[in-house]
Amino acid sequence: MRILVRCDSSELIGSGHLIRCRSLARALKERGSEIIFLTREHIGNHISQIEKEFRTLKMKFLENRIYKKNINDYKNWLLCSEEEDAQETFELIKENNICDFDLLIIDHYALSIIWQDRINYLLNKNNNKKIKFLVIDDICNRQFYADILINQNFYGSNSRNPYEYLIHKPTLELIGPDYCILDKEYSTQKSNRKRIFYKNILIYFGGS
Questions:
Q1: CA distances from 45 to 15, 22, 190, 203, 204 (A)
Q2: Beta carbons of 114 and 83 less than 8 angstroms apart
Q3: Mean pLDDT computed over 118-128
Q4: pTM for the whole thing?
């Protein structure tokens, strides 16, 4: 099974999207899948963390385009339009002769149904290919297609489905902490409930 992963990292975006995709990619690789990352060379990226383990196709560094210093302005994370990003993604897929992939994983707050429609059109036009999408999300702020959706946030048993009006086709929805994407050293760790006093505390401020 060939799986493509579209995610980014930068001084504004941080490293979280790339790292959790790496965790998922490791698990999928163990099960025999071929994983290929497509990621843009933003300033302050963490691409080197991925290249050590997976084939990585780099999208060009967008010189002369500047980040707005508002971390919640997700559209600005691309530094281009969704259509432009989809076009470049398609060209990279075509140039590397990997159009015969089975699944496209998206973990990017700036990519929506606009990007998906464009990439679908380009691949259908050239290869008559219907794309299966796995979307990783946790902010519920845009419309998208998803054959599989992963959101590891806790919403509570009485909460309304946050994606009720966002997803445009039937989806396998994996919502809640039970679906948290973790590396083995965390997911297999058993908590020591007997321990009361902690001598060392690690505080992690993220990859921004």
A1: 8, 14, 32, 21, 18
A2: yes
A3: 85
A4: 0.89
